[in-house]
């Protein structure tokens, strides 16, 4: 299946208007945002996964790494419990058996982690002490940084205008709260947007906005084929 698979093109979707699919595990549903899985065993995918209370997913190893943000509820595995706001990176070769007692929803990216990434970690994005304050450009919480990729959370207050932003390695957003617009469209909570390499952007923040931003990763996309 291919969905928003051409990384050289702009892509966006409003996940609140998309349809959920059943996964192989009972009680676990998923909503695909981007997908390119036509060269098994590689399944490059960005998806929202929803666990019903008491559901679980069979144990598995991350052949291409896993990165996720807990949007609602508490996600659990044999390592820990991860409440809403937890950002987690599980490098290539790690594995777990996920479950959720109370139910949860996560945004997850698979088969997109650079093979040099070796550190397995989690960050509580609700910890205010980790945020860097900036009244002009918005508050930021760095989550991961390397030559090939940067990931952060951003809070933009309504009325913020950011002009002539340049993204030589491309950029990707998932909006958790609020809304903003650019030259192409407006984006509300639940929207996903990806801009290709060498994109520029003018941003106007319409409502106080909280989002996850990933940049630089499209210049040399990871491939395990």
What Rg, in angstroms, do the CA atoms define?
A: 17 Å
> Helix count, per DSSP?
0
**Average pLDDT:** 94
Q: Percent of residues in beta strands?
A: over 45%
Count of DSSP E strands? 21
CATH architecture of the largest domain: Sandwich
Approximate helicity band: under 10%
Major β-sheet profile: 9 strands, antiparallel
Instruction: Indicate how many domains the architecture comprises.
Output: 2
Which CATH first-tier class of the largest domain would you pick? Mainly Beta
Give me the secondary-structure category. mainly beta
CATH fold assignment of the largest domain: Jelly Rolls
The CATH H-level superfamily of the largest domain is Jelly Rolls
Question: Strand-and-helix sequence, N→C?
Answer: EEEEEEEEEEEEEEEEEEEEE
What would you note in describing this structure?
The structure is a single chain. The chain has 225 residues and is mostly beta strands. The chain folds into 2 domains: 2-8 and 17-124, Jelly Rolls, CATH 2.60.120.10; 128-215, Jelly Rolls (Sandwich). The chain is built from no helices and 21 strands. Strand 18 and strand 19 (186-188) form a beta hairpin. The mean pLDDT is 94.
Detail the topology: elements first, then pairings.
Elements: E1 2-3, E2 11-14, E3 21-22, E4 28-39, E5 42-51, E6 55-56, E7 60-61, E8 66-76, E9 81-83, E10 86-90, E11 95-96, E12 99-100, E13 104-110, E14 121-124, E15 139-146, E16 149-156, E17 161-167, E18 171-181, E19 186-188, E20 191-195, E21 199-215
Antiparallel strand pairs: 1-4, 2-20, 3-4, 4-5, 5-13, 6-12, 7-11, 8-9, 8-10, 8-13, 10-14, 15-16, 16-21, 17-21, 18-19, 18-20, 18-21
